[in-house]
Amino acid sequence: MAAPDWSATPVVLAPMAGGPSTVDLAVAVAEAGGFAFLAGAYLTTDRLASDIAEFRSRSRSPFGVNVFAPSPDEPAMTTAAQAYAGRLGPWAARAGVELGVPRYDDDGFGQKVELLLRERPDVVSFSFGWPPAEAVDRLRRAGVSVWVTVNEPAEAEWAAELGVDGLVAQGWEAGGHRGGPVDTGAEQLPVRELVTALRARTGLPLLAAGGIMSGAEAAEVMALGAAAVAFGTAFLACPEAGTSAVHVHALHHLRGTTVTRAFTGRSARALRTTWTEVYGPHAPAAYPHVHHMTAPLRAYGRANGEPELVNLWAGEGHARLRALPAGELCRALGEELAAAR
Ligand SMILES: Cc1cc2nc3c(=O)[nH]c(=O)nc-3n(C[C@H](O)[C@H](O)[C@H](O)COP(=O)(O)O)c2cc1C
Known about the structure:
The protein is of the alpha/beta class. It has 12 helices and 11 strands. The longest helix is centred in the N-terminal third of the chain and has 20 residues, at 75-94. It is globular.
């Protein structure tokens, strides 16, 4: 299936599950000439269906939907998450919070794929794992452009083998989870080097993401071979985003980010806090077991304005974010990009 015409919409709103991605945010970006992703992860299939319907009732623009492909489940992950819960328990108890039970789930993957086959958004992107080849084939035959997130140059060949239409090249600077199919835990390439390395290995179109906060930086990455640029952190403080108040405040006031498995058992870039620095080093690679275990503590932190108890996802560029209405920000990014090119 043909990819969207990225040259018409080189400013892309990255999917941001867990609250920040809202239909309001996606509509504002799409109506300002950008390309918007809805985030399908953590939502029920019904809620994702109603988000898609609402987007379509408010915008005729093309759009994408991101879902998490299932992560591997191993019995040792539950045990490792329980051991980590033993360390976090006393800290959670001080806040009067009982931690959740570590468990596996696939985030309704099969149901979400069936929904996307019925709804046929212009693009479906998968992160966190390789989607089954059958899902890729069926979506493509239904006319959907299928993309996967990669963090490693060598993943380009696997993706080509799977038959996808394009790659989201997520650099090390990116806020939120490492989206590639394997959570190595090791430091990975920054976005410019990743795009350059991928460009040398594949002809697939690339959507670059990670630490990009201005149209001028987007132009640089596109000069290296990216077809378009996805902005995540840049949109977190827009009024249309569903980012919690404590998170927005921290993005403006805390300094320094780190990649940690502290909150979910999967590597993700967040602002440095006691949680990332003291407990993070003990967190196992066990997604989504750790995600479910820490969920009540994070919900408490968001509801009570306690930044130390929240997963404060942030890209390396967070100090430069602009708290503008999303349409205004999207237009500004587009103008800067056009001027730089
Ligand atoms: C709060 C937050 C939530 C995110 N959720 C998702 C998600 O659901 N799916 C996904 O593929 N990437 C997710 N990401 C990663 C973004 O799609 C994108 O790769 C990243 O934001 C780009 O880096 P930047 O934040 O420096 O712009 C998330 C990022 C943030 C900041």
